[in-house]
Design a protein that fits this description.
The protein is built from six helices and no strands. It has 115 residues and is mainly alpha-helical. The chain starts with a helix and ends with a helix.
Length: 115
């Protein structure tokens, strides 16, 4: 599995994971966050490796469906990019740090922390 896909699913899980059942959350956490193999998870839950694989794929699909309807990750990434653009513009600003520039830096930092 590509790193980009793992990062994408992890982000979806961060946003929508609470909407999954307890068992689905546990399997997804072990697979994506703890990096356990399908066989290790299968042993943990006393199910087949194929059962774990099917559950992970089903959860991936559920998370993608939530994103298709709610677009929370898309909005998050858009806001994050815009804040980074603000910070880049501030870096290019005059070395004379006016109060306005300091206030903008503070607010953009707070936005990043909240995201």
């Amino acid at each position: 599995m590509k790193f980009d896909n793992i990062a994408h699913v992890s982000l979806l899980f961060d946003f929508y994971g609470k909407l999954l059942t307890k068992r689905q959350r546990e399997v997804m956490e072990l697979y994506y966050e703890e990096n356990l193999t399908l066989a290790e998870i299968a042993d943990e839950f006393e199910i087949s490796r194929q059962g774990v694989h099917d559950l992970v794929k089903r959860c991936d699909k559920i998370l993608e469906e939530y994103e298709a309807k709610l677009h929370l990750v898309e909005k998050f990434l858009s806001i994050k990019e815009k804040v980074h653009q603000i910070n880049e513009l501030l870096e290019d600003a005059k070395t004379d740090e006016s109060q306005l520039i300091q206030d903008i830096r503070k607010i953009s930092g707070e936005i990043i922390e909240e995201l």
